[in-house]
Amino acid sequence: MTSEPTASLADDDFSLFGLPRRQALDRTEVDARWRALQAQVHPDRFASQGGATQQLALQWAMRVNEAYQRLKEPVGRAAYLCGLNGIDVSAGRNLLPRSFLMQQMEWREALEAAGARDAVQALADVVRTNRETLLRELAEHIDGRQDWPAAAGSVQALMFIARFATDLDARLDG
Q1: Which SUPFAM superfamilies is this protein grouped with (predicted)?
Q2: For the residues 16-33, what does the mean pLDDT come to?
Q3: CB 101 within 8 A of CB 156
Q4: N or C terminus of the chain with fewer C-beta within 10 Å?
Q5: How many domains are there within the chain?
Q6: Among candidate residues 41, 35, 13, 7, the one with its CA nearest the CA of residue 25
Q7: Domain holding 26: CATH number?
């Protein structure tokens, strides 16, 4: 490609986007970097060039999109940062604190027992507040202390909350 990025396909997502390895990133900045990179590597820009150049452009576009998917949301970004620091949050290992495991059970029981829409909405509000608290704690674990085991536990808790929020939404919509 004649206008090839200065980065390498093998660079980590943060390097590719020219961003610091931090949890606290401005979503607007991440979006702007993604648009700039896509403008630079989009395969349509290389439609008149040879097949090898077009294939390389396609690889770059896919790589940029994959990185964007990980960096744009706090939980995905945190999971990626944990992975870069040696902890795979999806490796089947439970990294959740016991207190959160108990909280999960209580929320599940509360959802099962909730008869009225108001009760489900109240539980959804509690879960949303817990999510916001966990996101703040996650940023402190990563950016403040670089406590990767604690960050990984928070990521897993947030993943549970996302799945549970889907169940809550289904009950509220149904």
Answers
A1: Chaperone J-domain (SSF46565), HSC20 (HSCB), C-terminal oligomerisation domain (SSF47144)
A2: 97
A3: no
A4: C
A5: 2
A6: 13
A7: 1.10.287.110
Which residues form the domain of 134? Answer: 98-173
Q: pLDDT digit string (tens) for 85-140?
A: 999 998 778 888 889 999 999 999 999 999 899 999 999 999 999 999 999 999 99
d(CA 142, CA 64): 24
Residue 61: name the closest of 43, 45, 49 by CA: 43
User: Which one-letter amino acid corresponds to residue 127?
Assistant: V
**pLDDT tens, residue by residue, 29-82:** 999 999 999 999 998 888 888 888 889 999 999 999 999 999 999 999 999 999
Asked whether the whole model's pTM tops 0.70, one would answer: yes
Residues 114 and 120 sit within 8 Å (Cβ to Cβ): yes
Do the Cβ atoms of 138 and 82 come closer than 8 Å? no
> Do residues 154 and 134 lie in contact, with contact meaning Cβ atoms separated by under 8 Å?
yes
In the numeric block, which tokens belong to residue 11? Answer: 């660079």
Evaluate whether residue 7 is within a structural domain: no
Check whether residue 123 and residue 62 sit in a common domain: no
Taking the C-alpha atoms of residue 174 and residue 120, their distance in angstroms, rounded to an integer, is: 11
- Residue 3 is predicted with a pLDDT of 47
